[in-house]
Amino acid sequence: MKRAGLLALLVAALVVAFILAKGGSDNTATTSTSSSSGPVVINVVGGKPQGGVKKITVNKGDPVRFKVVSDVSDEIHVHGYNFHKDVEKGGSVSFDFPAKIDGIFVIELESRGEQIASLQVNQ
Which residues constitute the domain of residue 72? Predict the structure, then answer.
């Protein structure tokens, strides 16, 4: 029994040490999309991306596909590509375009200035 208690204490200490070393949560969710996968779904709850800012990674020339489901109305803006679409409260909007420009681009709720995703296009 003592051995099991010590082992549990050691595991708990290691978990806490790992979390502290990592610096806590970075509030970023990583999701990749490619031409063969369906759209990445970004859920906006309370005007913020549920689960943190999504990271969408594609290769140049591949399609970029994502869908925003939102509980607030706002304009979705894909910086760099300068695409804009309105989403209604309780609605959704989809994007599907070729990745022609390489780099890292912010996707945000324009009026709120809230980043909901990061688009990374690799060469």
Answer: 26-122
